[in-house]
Amino acid sequence: MQGVLGLDDMVGAAWSLISPSIHPLVGANKTGKWSNDVDRLQLAFDGVSVNVLGELGARWDSTTVPGIIVTTTAATNGVIV
Hints:
This protein is an alpha+beta fold and 81 residues long. It has one domain. 15% of the residues lie in helices and 26% in strands. It has one helix and six strands. The chain has one helix spanning 7-18, and strands at residues 24-28, 41-45, 48-49, 59-61, 69-72, 79-80. It has a three-stranded antiparallel beta sheet with strand order 1-2-3. A three-stranded antiparallel beta sheet has the order 4-5-6, with no helix packed on it. β5 (69-72) and β6 form a beta hairpin. The relative contact order is 0.19.
């Protein structure tokens, strides 16, 4: 029986198709009780913190890999990469 892929596994697999040398990180801070009112996301790209959180529609563009964009889809806990 095959195991279920976690978010990090899926993100890693998707990025490895784009470029094996790119190292993204999408994570969430540990919490006892989840609340969408508190931003828990942690984002990094090739070891550099990606700070787009806190504002709907905020955008980050990679300066090292053209076309890599992170956009917030909510004021907290929502991004599209």
